[in-house]
Amino acid sequence: MFNKLNFSASINWWAHGLGYLCPAPVREFFNASPELITIEFVHQDVIFKRYSSTANGDLEKQQFNTQDEIVRTRILTWLQDHIALKANVVLIVPDDFFLKKRLAFPKATSTNLRQVLSFELNRKTPFSAEQVYFDYLLDSEQHKTDKIHPELFLVPKEKIDANLELLKSWNIKLDAIRPAAYKDNCDINLIAPEALPKDKSSSDKTMLVLVTATCLLLIATLYAPIINQQKELDMLESAVSKNKKAAIQLKQLEIEKSAIIEQLHFLDNKRRNEMSSVALINEVTKIIPDDTWLTRFVVKETELQLQGESSNASSLIQTLETSKYFADVQFRSPVIQNKVTQKDKFHLSAKFTRENI
User: Which of 80, 146, 180, 254 has its CA 20 to 30 A from that of 235?
Assistant: First the structure.
């Protein structure tokens, strides 16, 4: 009698191996649930583990010493086969490499929290943004309060850069870097979003095929009417050529009309722009706290830039965004404390539309 569990496992193994004989796009199309492959460095060894979203525990484990070139070549070939099947590759970093810290910011900073954290790292931690890989987690219940408390995770680059260079030399592109305790948490990834590999999904390719087929069908359907339209167009062009001189004169009149209208509106536009600047100054004066003063006030097109000092520069983003005039308020440079005045020196910008002024 067959053992049901072993028989099922054998069929899965056979189907998985047969998939390698198919072209890569075909394999990607039928692989609806991508696998997870983790990489861990333990002394001189590298450990690869393969996981599936449909099974508990690791399905497969590969391990080799970095000095063993023969075994390394075999295992890297195995890894590339799984990457071709759209497996997600994650570097697992030991938990003791990480600095974990809970911070507090105004709720208004949630829209650009990663940028705010990069500015605040050198104030809240012993490191600057250039010295670490970092990410954060937010509690889903924090939307009920006026503050957010991100859980910051960071690891010094010097701890893992050597391993990253080794993986790069093996032509391995990572999809994520995570702490060992959070290997299954897709919300944390120490790779900056702009540095992630960009791959088109199989759904994008399928959509491209469907759009191309539709376009070809439309061209075939419309081909006959186009011939008739071309004949009518030839007749119209013949008629237009007879009145070409009149058309040129009409165009010249339209150009002159536009020039006159532009001259008439010049003074009006200038007056409105001056009024807009006065309104902005008045609005900023009303809403900024008394413990804040400005050293620079610049209006450029639809952007306002402010420089100055404040007792609490972090709260200025929320203060400005309470105004109906301003949106997309953000710091242009890190906040620095003036040792003489004990206040925060800031440089921020805000978008505005003149229609609201």
Answer: 254
d(C-alpha 83, C-alpha 46), whole Å: 17
Question: What length is written for the chain?
Answer: 357
Q: Identify residue 68 by its one-letter amino acid code.
A: D
Phi, psi of 48 (to 5 degrees): -110, 135
322: left (phi over 0), alpha (psi -120 to 50) or beta: alpha
Distance in angstroms (rounded) separating the CA atoms of residues 100 and 136: 9
70 token code pair: 């023969």
Burial class (CB in 10 A: 0-12, 13-18, 19+), 151: middle
Residue matched to tokens 């995770």: 153
**Residue 145 carries which DSSP code?**
S
Do 349 and 298 form a contact (C-beta atoms < 8 A)?
no
Give the predicted TM-score (pTM) of the model: 0.47
Residue 47 · residue 113 · CB < 8 Å: no
Q: Rounded distance, CA 313 to CA 110, Å?
A: 16
In this structure, what token pair is assigned to residue 161? 């850069």
pLDDT tens, the chain, 357 aa long: 434 445 554 555 555 555 555 554 554 444 445 678 888 988 888 888 888 766 666 677 888 787 778 777 888 887 777 666 577 889 999 988 988 988 888 888 888 888 888 888 888 889 988 999 999 988 766 666 788 888 899 999 999 998 899 888 888 888 899 998 888 888 888 888 877 765 545 555 666 677 788 878 877 777 767 777 778 888 888 777 777 777 788 888 888 888 888 877 775 666 566 557 788 889 898 999 989 999 999 988 889 999 999 999 889 999 999 888 889 999 999 999 999 989 999 999 999 876 666
Bridge pairing between strands 303-310 and 292-300: antiparallel
Q: Rounded CA gap, 177 and 191, in Å?
A: 6
CB 105 within 8 A of CB 113: yes
